[in-house]
Amino acid sequence: MNALRLPLLLTLLPLLLAAPLRAETRYISDQTRIMMRAGEGPRFKILRRLPAGYPVEVLSINKKTGYAHVRTKSGKTGYVLLHQLMKEPAARAQLAEMRQRLEALQAEPDQLAARLSKAQRENSELEASNARLQRERDELARKYEELQRVSANAVRVNNERNELRKKQVSLVRQIEELKQENQELSNTSAQKWLVNGALVTFGGILIGLILPRLHMRKRKNTWGSL
Predict the structure, then answer these.
(1) pLDDT tens digits along 214-223
(2) What is the helix (H) or strand (E) element at residue 176, kind and residue range?
(3) Separation between Cα atoms, residue 101 and residue 97, nearest integer Å
(4) How many other C-beta atoms can be found within 10 angstroms of the C-beta atom of residue 56?
(5) 67 with 40: CB under 8 angstroms?
(6) For residues 107 and 114, is the Cβ–Cβ distance under 8 A?
(7) If you average pLDDT over residues 75-90, what whole number do you get?
(8) Which of 33, 63, 153, 189 has a 20 to 30 Å separation from 206 between CA atoms?
(9) What is residue 118's DSSP assignment?
(10) pTM of the model
(11) For position 59, what pLDDT does the model report?
């Protein structure tokens, strides 16, 4: 039984010696490239070459073999020598990062100038748009006032038209009444002419009857005096 346990213990020993760690980020040392292998030792297959300053996540460390189990940013896991890892980025990587920051800082004034120029252009466009909108607003206000005047004039003209129609109806009624009165006057005048004619005729007849008798009486009186 002990003979069976010994190989098992030898197999598990590296795992037991591998100290479990809370995952932390370390950086490849300031070398050109290091090898990430499939196992703890040079006999294992090379999975990929990691450049200097490349960050990896340390999953565990085996102090006996001197290897660390790591995971790359892409999620691939493997083993690298512990002494090739640094807690801080390599000087070359830091220098490259500082150079990038310096270039970014140097580019910021140009970017700010470009942003300022763009903002000025947008401000000019907004001012032109605002001026155009104000002109359109003034034009609409003028048209609105004109429509109000036209509407007021239309109401006034309509009222005047209604008044004229009323006056026209009243005048037509008065004309009809005058026509009727004129007709009645004409009829009365005709009747008067007829009466007057009849009276003249009757008077003529009376005169014609009376005058001969007067002559005869005058003659008789003349003869009686003789």
Answers:
(1) 666 666 666 5
(2) helix 91-225
(3) 6
(4) 23
(5) yes
(6) no
(7) 86
(8) 189
(9) H
(10) 0.34
(11) 93
